[in-house]
Task: structure prediction
Amino acid sequence: MEPLLSFTAVFPEAILLTGACFILIADLFLAQHSRNGAYVLSLLCLLAVGVAAWGPLSEGTVEYGFGGMYLSDPMTAVLKIGAVLATAVTFVYAQAYARQRNMWRGEFFSLGLFALLGIMTMISANNLLVIYLGLELQALSLYGMVALRRDEPRASEAAMKYFVLGALASGFLLYGMSMLYGGTGTLDINALAHRITGGQAVNLALVLGTIFVVAGIAFKLGAAPFHMWVPDVYQGAPTPVALLLASAPKLAAFAITFRLLVEGVPQLAVDWQRMLAFVAVASLAVGNVTAVAQTNLKRMLGYSTVGQMGFLLLALLAGVVGGNTSITAGAYGAAMFYVLTYALATAGSFGIILLLAREGFEAEEIADLAGLAKRSPWYAFVMTLLMLSLAGVPPTVGFAAKFVVLQALVSDGGSATTWTLAVVAVLFSLIGAFYYLRVVKVMWFDDAVQASPIVAGHDLRIALTANGALVLLLGVLPQGLLALCNGAVLRALGG
Amino acid sequence: MDSTFPWLSFSIWVPIFFGAYLLVIGRDSHPGVVRAVALVASLVSGLGTVPVVLGFDSARAGLQFTEKVAWISNPTAHYYLGVDGISLWFVPLTAFITVIAVLAGWKAIEQRLAQYYAAFLILSGLMIGVFCAADGLLFFVFFEATLIPMYLIIGVWGGPNRVYAAIKFFLYTFLGSLLMLVAIVYLYQAAGGSFDIATWQHLPLGHTPQMLLFVAFLAAFAVKVPMWPVHTWLPDAHVEAPTAGSVVLAAIMLKLGAYGFVRFSLPIAPDASHELAAPIMAISLIAVVYVGFVALVQTDMKKLVAYSSIAHMGFVTLGFFLFSPIGVEGALAQMISHGFVSGAMFLCIGVMYDRVHSRNIVDYGGVVNTMPRFAALMMLFAMANCGLPATSGFVGEFLVILGAVQFDFWIGAIAATTLVLGAAYSLWMYKRVIFGDVANPAVAKLQDIDGREFVALGLLAVAVLAMGVYPAPLIDSMHSSVADLLAQVAHSKLVAGNP
Result:
């Protein structure tokens, strides 16, 4: 075991914590008109964190810190860089919107950075309590961010709902963890798996604990039947916060799912895979079918997230226990690819909503996109790519992601169950295609309600264009990111 | 004779590159530049297909002009292109029709010109990609990606009911394709991790997998062809699409589905194909006869030609499932010919629509008095549409009927009714529109076709006649590949010890 206080494993987090605290204090001395200082500082801080997180990725090192409670390896590095990018993109996209709505304040940045710190802690945690710690830090920061516009009734309602249900989910997760601890006598993820193999475990407590853990995770992912908060919060939260909520936390949720279920209790895979299969199908059904009826774009994206999480869970239940490490790595690599690309496409979609919003106008109804192709063909094209990616139409990255998940689902030849799941998944994708396509239809075929040209800063324009281009580029050439994900997961599984 | 220069990639990526260029840079304030770029791009892409046709070795059955580059490593997929005798002619056909489509939209389209031409150019590259792909995943990506530009073409530049037609078009075809995706994933697993279509074709498969695969591919291709009873999206799409959209849809996009049958269904699931040949033939004949009658009663010219397309495509699927060289070659010839003829028919309707803004037959009459040159050309295409000898329409229909009679006299007899029905709906429409007295003032004011329209229709006329008079090079280049295909289809995969 390494020295108790090994700081190299938490290097990026240390930078982020320092930076967040510094911005929190420095902001006190900034006047409202020079708030851009906090913005620039935040982006610089994120840049430094990203560079620091790149280390384990380029060197391929696996490092434990704090007596094995904290882990840094290529997989955590990829997810952290994803989360850092998502946060940076949130700040960039939010600029004009937040200024007009009196949200362009120090709290916005420091809460965002602290949420990111929680997310990164969840990604790297290798201990039940540390996972919980990260989860709470992330959740508390996000509760605050949702409520940032406190004079807005809908935002307050969303924050309340998010807080109550989030606390409930945390309770579930904690209760499950306590049972796992009770059954094995350890909080360490690696030791957990080890003790169950060693036959020291009390089985019933473990199964019960796993049920609660799965329920907690499903809450955090926003998978049915624990999805109730998702549409309300997405719709009610200020759009930049919804963007952040929809992207980076999903990466963390993926990481803790991997840690808790795959690394923690692989012996119970038969049990939790069955649960995940149910949750996955329920999410696909509820998310896709309900999204059809939505007229509010943010709410639709909320339900779409539910459906997307169903697809993600399919990949998570595909791997494990077969014994073939490369197939298992392929499955979790596919899941990781899926969650990263989902975050990319979702972030862009919220970015378009932010682009169209003006002072006193939210642009969050689907109808508000009408005639976008006439007002700005370029952003209509970007949004088209994003929607097609979420729908899984080639040649966008969403297709590559759906494809590798389907492939992983049946990768060991498949059983009747997995093939049925695959067919169910593609059929719900068809329903999904309908409502994503409706957005494309509204943009291209309908006449514009407003003719005003689109005003946006250069950073927003560049970021959105890059976002759209990336969705297309990664769709045509997915190899790089896919190999990165597969390699990282293989490494995490000890291959 | 494999060329070292990647001509296939050239033909695929040149139009896509220029399309993307128009999308990003193109300005509607300079329509002349946009049109010129589009025309140059389509011509360059077309010229790129010439070496493929000239350098093709008809004696060989396998893929030629192959290009293979690793694309994705896990799952293993390649950027793998190649043409054989089956796919060869569709590459120049696509490039040629794109030139026609560019000419067809020259004046009719006034708004969002750059995007319009970008969509057509990108679509052209993607469709050539479908015909060239030798990797299953690559095929699927191209096949699906074609939906996006066509969806926008119908929805943005289409007629009054365009939104409904566009969404119906997309969802119908998307549903079929998704089932094909599952089939492709299955084949990848069964082949031990390979997307190579040739490997799939030689893969031993049991009875149940074959049936399921056949059904999954049928779902994708039958919708695309389209076969009766899943054809209902086509008349809607055709009626609402702009002229050039209809031309490309009828001339090329329908062929993607039919091509899928020969590339996937028949060789990968030969036993299932034989087993299900009877129902497929039955619905093909329904398409030929019933849809032929439906075409007869149409009052809208575009709808009439759309239904006639379905009937002609019924001939194609019938030819494939005869499992004889004559049948398959006839079907392939019918596909190429239909590409020229249906494209030309839609172009003719477009020419009239641009002037009168009506597609209804009753709004015309006596057009020959004001547009003699146009009437002469349209006469040729109407004749080709009903399969008159010495036009391209005759070659395919004759071969398929011959094959059908060999197979079973009555099937041949039913198929042959198309000669009567085709003549009836084509010529009756022609008569009502072109001949007679000048029906109304709008017709009286018609101007005959200008140089651009003459070039577009003239090129098609030359193609129709050349193929009708001397089809030998076309058919000859198919022999080896078709023989190879039929050998595979004749060889049961069940004998290899599969349950």
About this structure: Residues 276-494 of chain B form one domain. The radius of gyration of chain B is 22 Å.
